[in-house]
Design brief:
It contains five helices and five strands. The chain has helices at about 10-20, 20-30, 30-40, 45-60, 90-100; strands at about 1-10, 75-80, 85-90, 105-110, 115-120.
Length: about 120
């Protein structure tokens, strides 16, 4: 049963401004996310924007927003085949468990100056 759906969009310009400030990046992104996208060169800002949108979409899917959740506790990675996946730790894991969901689905897209993410939470 689907317990929540969230969608969010982020303007890439916003992330490009953050990209040169490591302290700010470390506030919002897990070190694993930063390392993964840094290797993408010019596509790094697009990838980070999509990941930030996923974090926001996750909060919307919970139905509670991100209040009380540390953003870097939500980690968006790509599996070997490129499929995105959300991993949650600490405050995000607690919020997910409280929601009753035990499965997460994510879709990311980006083009030019926008990135969009959709998250579906499900109880199986």
């Amino acid at each position: 049963m689907i317990t929540g759906i969230g969608i969010d969009t982020v303007h890439v310009k916003r992330i490009k401004r953050w990209y040169s400030n490591l302290k700010l990046m470390e506030r919002f992104f897990h070190s694993e996310e930063i390392a993964a996208v840094t290797s993408r060169g010019s596509g790094a800002a697009l990838s980070l924007a999509a990941r930030f949108a996923a974090k926001e979409a996750f909060g919307k899917a919970l139905g509670t927003g991100l209040s009380g959740i540390i953003l870097k506790d939500i980690v968006v990675i790509n599996k070997n085949n490129g499929k995105p996946e959300i991993q949650v730790y600490g405050s995000a894991r607690t919020a997910l468990e409280k929601s009753g969901a035990n499965t997460m689905h994510i879709s990311l897209t980006h083009e030019n100056d926008s990135a969009i993410a959709m998250v579906v939470l499900e109880r199986t």
